[in-house]
Amino acid sequence: MVATVDAVNQRSSPRPDSRLLKTVKLGAGSQYEKEIHRIAMAPLTRFRNTPGTQAPTDLSVTYYQQRASPKGLIVNEATFVSAEAGGYPTAPGIHSEEQIAGWKKVTDAVHSKNGYIYLQAWALGRANAGQQEGVETVAPSAIGLKDHPVPREMTTEDIDNFVKAYGVAAANAKKAGFDGVELHGANGYLVNQFLESVSNKRTDAYGGDWQGRSKFLFRVLDELINVFGQERIGVRLSPWGRFQDQLEEDPYATYIPVVQEIVKRYPKFGYIHFVEPRNWTGIPETRFPKEGIVESNDPFRAIIRGIDISSYSSPSDYAKTNPSFEDPTPEHPTVVISAAGHDADNVEEFVERTGDIACIGRYYISNPDLPERIFKGYPVRKYDRSTFYSPGPVGYIDQPTWEEESRAKHVENVAVQP
Fold first, then answer.
1. Can you tell me the distance from the alpha carbon of 411 to that of 398, in angstroms, rounded to the nearest whole number?
2. What is the gyration radius of the CA atoms in the chain, in angstroms?
3. Is residue 136, in this structure, part of any structural domain at all?
4. What is the C-alpha separation between 340 and 357, in angstroms, rounded?
5. What residues contact residue 153 under an 8 Å CB cut-off, 6+ apart?
6. What's the domain count of the chain?
7. Would you please indicate which residues are annotated as catalytic (active-site) residues?
8. What integer pLDDT is reported at residue 278 of this predicted model?
9. What's the pTM value of the predicted model, to 2 decimals?
10. Which structural domain, as residue segments, surrounds residue 197?
11. What's the CATH number where 285 sits?
12. Is residue 382 part of a domain?
């Protein structure tokens, strides 16, 4: 049964010479080079995996296959790297043979449509609300979230075990046929908790200044790279994220040196996936950076593209210039992916200025053929929030493509003719 959702945004096609219609090279100049179009599918937790095993279902196979497209990149729903990393009973894992087998069906389905799919490697940390029996809530520091257990501060042995778990998860992802791995370092989950001083009060080698707070991040990236190589690894960062009580007083002080270190340490790094500074949760914001800071990812884009912004008095002053950016080059091959706030109406202008791949989530739920709709100017359907996390096929695999919609309307019109 085709879900009925009102179509919106009757649009014109992008300009023929639009940057939106031009591909970008991921892993440029390497044996892993891939041409990717500019509309990627964002990682979307949907809570529809098998209870007990946390393995993808046949519904998952259909869901991802529907949304795959030639030269299209999908970042899969956040996936637990180990049982200890989890806490949501129907979110997926990549740490058992049954899970690997389930994901292999998904990756085969995506590849059958000449698309690509990366695994988003995930650990909850203090975001574990205790919903899954036997999974302890641990974090860099014993700082709890509202309505969550106060986490136990991780020992260095805990840290070592988690680092190893990411490496095993990467090997399992490779076995399952994923094209690469994205480390979830954003949105208040474990890696993000280590990175930011609001959630990391450690006094050992994993706390203190940005070098200490980023040590866990880089140890994990090393593990992932050992399996896939730099070119096939990405990381998601949310410098401006307030979700789950994050946000530094001066995010630039942490994230500029972290991004500089990524491109210095890994000169062939695949991509950095930034969450844009916008309120995507719908919850009123109560946390803000210190006065005078302009919230922008453009200073990070400049670092990745090899642009020297030291002549500006601050990153915020550079951000105020609303700069434009070139595509990746062999000298600076790291791709920038951008998520949050993109839709069919604003994405062309955004990509024209930044050169990013735009990662879109909610509209991909209601439009399995979203890239085609955007590239050809077809109407884009509204999404239904009530089905985001509900079980079963409704709102999951019952959303029509434009071709299916058009065919259904044609049949309906024929049926009502006298």
1. 18
2. 21
3. yes
4. 12
5. 138, 139, 140, 141, 142, 202
6. 1
7. 189
8. 74
9. 0.94
10. 9-368
11. 3.20.20.70
12. no
